[in-house]
Amino acid sequence: MPLELVKEKWTGKINEVTIGATKGEGGTRTSKIVVGGETGLPFLHEEGEMPHRPVVAMEVWDTAPSDWPEVLAAPFKEVMDDPGRWSKKCVEEYGADLLALRLQSAHSDWGNASPEKVSEGVKKVLEAVGVPLIILGPGQDDRDNEVLPRCSEVAKGEKCLFGNATQDNYKTLVAACLADGHSIIGESPIDINIAKQVNILISDMGFPLEKIIMDPTTGGLGYGLEYSYSIIERGRLAALGAGDKTMALPIICRVGQESWRAKEAKAGESDFPDWGAVSERGPLWEATTAVALLQAGADILVMRHPRAVESVRKTIDSLTRKNPLRDSAETLD
Amino acid sequence: MALTGLDIYKQLPKTNCGECGLPTCLAFAMQLAAKKTSLDKCPHVTEEGRAALEGASAPPIRLVTIGTGEKKVGVGNETVLFRHEETFYHPTGIAITVNDDLEGDDLEKRIGAIQSLQFERVGQRIEINLVAIRQGDNSSAARYAEVVKKVMAKLDLPPILMSSSPESLEEALKVCAEMKPLIYAADSNNYEAVAKLAKDHSCPLTVKGNGLEELSSLTEKISSSGIQDLVLDSGRRDMVSTLSDLTQIRRLALRKTYRPLGYPTIAFTSEKDPFQETAQACAYIAKYANIVVLDGAEPWQLLPVLTLRQNIYTDPQKPIQVEPKVYEVGTVIDKSPVLVTTNFSLTYFTVEGDVEASKVASLIVVVDTEGTSVLTAWAAEKFTAESIASAVKKYTVEEKVSHRKLIIPGFVAVLSGKLEEELPGWKVLVGPRESSGIPTYLKNTWKEVSL
How many structural domains are present in chain A? Predict the structure, then answer.
């Protein structure tokens, strides 16, 4: 009797979200990225479609990040004070096909820059590179609300992905993205009910669910990764199995930000000789966080170190290969 | 799959003799289903009935133990597909390979490298579990056994014996059978001879198929000869097919109680680049491998692998806690700042990391909030002016510093007034809401207020 495999029959489908608009579409991007569209659990190609591969967005700051550890800062040393050059380096040297521009200069501890000043950084990056953009505020409600509408305006028609809208602070950003044709990120604090609530609040303002991406908050490897992992998995099961349309949204994870906070990623060999070379350990800590989240269902990974980015891209290549050596068991031994 | 009371009732004598202590066979069946009594209490159940009930009540995935003593590893007996449904119980066994073509110093070096793969992080010890000793193509049975002997003399880890030759496995078993090694592997060519070795030496055995069909038919043949401690290798080495097979094995076992695949699994990395190899290992840890075998043995590679295993196998129903007390970060002096937080391990270690990053030596007072985070503990009234004050007193903070300033998380700023009443003489400072604000706070705000 032939073995009958257990294949799930999913009824739901994750929304497809496009980031970036080319000339013909009212923008100036030279390429665009589509994420989502899954009809099954990650990488189980025999029972569901994964029409768009998960993507890595390389993180660029609009002000030099003075608190990045040496291993992380080293590749960007020359370009850190110029977001245009930094972006170009990511695209030309590291092959980034999506960038996440973080408007840290607007943060009250990082210069408190004016909306006008911050939006100039956005223009600079839009001019320097042709890839689509994710644009992230500094994460302080008042500063986000001051600078993001202006940045949304200068990027009008480019179909960027703006973030983050939260349960307590979403109206200003939603209105701006509606007016200027962008997609939006809804953030929740590792809480599946709030994740759903944020999506409902945003869509109640007339913003289509089909243009929202969920940020369930990322726990870095060793520091709460498992919470994010299970929230993403539960959300995906609710969307695919129970057909919950308010959870059928692609997922974005701030991998770089969270993994580089860990002591394990940045502590030097002199402090922890048993942990091995920090030049390898740091990037691998970031890559491992990403690889685990891919298994839960992440669609966009916002990452920092070029080595981690390259490695995760290769992993995505392996995972999205639809017809691997299915029938030729390649063995080592 | 758990049997219902009615399923069990069908196998009982249905005589209502009452000798089990319950009035009817149905009542007894219900108690059995609830695992409140044992089948031994029924003196009249038939042999067939007993066999059927015992077979059906066996766990869908067998627990297999490798090794003996303190370092033994139990894998399998998982009950769910997703950790949030319950938890994953038996952490993936991590094995590192040693090839038998290594000579002299190289062998010593490799053993030394494997020995050092144990780490201390967030107050817990994490380490690799197994050593996989692999026979090369041109090696003899004697050579293989000699290397196994050398490795086992140095490493206190349960071994996996990797060879396709029954003769070599037999020689190696002469050296280490009492350590209950995992034999790798019985395949379609050698399974009769290798299965006999496993039986003679009572050792767990890996069955390696070329795909799931062949694997199932092999395990059926082998288990019918009385060998039950099996581990499964579907033979795939690329990520997509390996993940698919591991998923199918887990689903078939749990959803269909499919006995031929009701055993723990083993997966092998195949990538040479250490980053890509780590990615494979981590994907397999997340999705259903019970043992993962790596060639890489760099500490910077195993630290993230073991940490991921720790994360994935954390019981989602039980928050990990740290001991409530005063922790010192850096070389503290009597003027060092004092911060307050909860004993949820994630909260504590995030705060600890950020304090460390600030390079300002500090004391952290950890209040017992039964493993809940700041906001949750505050809402549940476990993180209150009273509980914070009592911790400050209990851990005699006033003897450790000369100042009287206490930094509380920004999210519980509302506690300030009450806390100053509870702790006369102390000034309560409101710190940042997020832990990530601690470095800026300690470097700037604290400097000003501490003057």
Answer: 1
